[in-house]
Amino acid sequence: MAMQFMKSGARVRRAHNKRLPQYLERGVDVKFSDVAGLGKIRLELEEIVKFFTHGEMYRRRGVKIPGGILLCGPPGVGKTLLAKAVAGEAGVNFFSISASQFVEIYVGVGASRVRALYQEARENAPSVVFIDELDAVGRERGLIKGSGGQERDATLNQLLVSLDGFEGRGEVITIASTNRPDILDPALVRPGRFDRKIYIPKPGLIGRIEILKVHARKKPMAEDVDYMAIASMTDGMVGAELANIVEVAAINMMRDGRTEITTDDLLQAAQMEERGMLDRKERSLDTWKQVAINEAAMAVVAVNYPDLKNIEFVTIAPRAGRELGYVRMKMDPIKFKEGMLTRQSLLDHITVQLAPRAADELWFGEDRLSTIWAETADNARSAARTYVLGGLSEKHHGLSNFWVADRLNDLDTEALQIVNMCYERAKEILQKNRKLMDAVVDELVQKKSLTKQEFFSLVELHGSIKPMPPSILDIRAAKRKQFQDMMMNQKEPALGSNL
């Protein structure tokens, strides 16, 4: 009987004298095929679906079905969409509420809403209860004083009781989302309430390509759209941002009176998502050239170092009130985002940050120095202090207590020596690559932006780049291409046999 009910799809049970459930979300037809970039996370979610579709099999074998699943991850990665996909794949009812709706100034209102939510879910089981932004009500108890804190604590207590009521039965599964799991009450996240915690990370390169293609399904895309180029430019972006890029590109297409979305539309939309709208105010030729020298210097110096040479984009077009352009580099996230920098990588980073200051001196002379490089120079000074404090310098190798009064001068002196050394390295590279600098500056002044292909074409023609070992990103890209070629070679005989 239970299997027959599941096959027919979930229905809302309603007596003639009762109104429809308040928290039921109708028309949820999201499937896993509508959610891209999941990777191995999909296996976890498919297992949750099996708890509904094959619940009796689990129970016969003595397996306790989890009553709660906590989806953790940064904003915009698709936690809500994943919860809907679980309900859609399982064919069960989907009840949703934001945790902030539980919190009221009147004592007892939040707890009554929790009871009402789970009463509706129980009456219309099997069902998924989705609580968005769980941290709004699930913070550790006792931190907030007064009546507001009492109401929040009472609401949380009722939620704990409701979660205990469905433990191991599989009729109602609670899925909650949060981007702050660290502040949740320990009693809420213990096994038996939220038994399973699934972290949803930001999508990688392949994941971003898949997400872009999903959102492009119903859009008039040009046949030659380069999804790889868009995905490379959007490193660090989440699904919500990628979806918005496709929508903005579609608006650009309509504005220009065209019938297809091109790669350029998507590239422009990606820049708008990352840096804001284009500022179209007029500038003098001298200003354009000075900004171009500033950005070209960073790109030309960076391309000499393995960890920084992956230039994705160079632009001098001002956006969102910023006068300067920017250079987008694709860097190894393990090194630069997780704080696993080597001594050489940190020195290379300092050198690149000092490149605009070196270019300003070489092209305009010391008498005409400006403050255009002030921000990057400050980054270099900060990185130099990190270098010394981390025990990476020659003089203070290892751990030292620099916060003693008579040692602070040693810290600043050593950091200054590192800055001066890296500054000379930057000047040397720029002097060797004057032809490349002039070519990049001329192109930037004319076009305002250079793509990866355009920039590296200039590097091949005019650059004097020292040989270097491949970076970790080069190695990963080579392995990925080798794997793709191997898969294509395996498919070719099968296709030929059908001819």
UniProtKB/TrEMBL annotation:
Domain AAA+ ATPase: 65-204
GO molecular function: ATP binding; ATP hydrolysis activity; ATP-dependent peptidase activity; metalloendopeptidase activity
A GO cellular component entry from the record: chloroplast
Pfam families: AAA, AAA_lid_3, Peptidase_M41
GO biological process entries: protein import into chloroplast stroma; proteolysis
Transmembrane segments: none
Alphabetical UniProt keywords: Hydrolase, Metalloprotease, Protease, Transit peptide
Annotated family: In the N-terminal section; belongs to the AAA ATPase family.
UniProt protein name: Putative inactive ATP-dependent zinc metalloprotease FTSHI 2 chloroplastic
Organism: Prunus yedoensis var. nudiflora
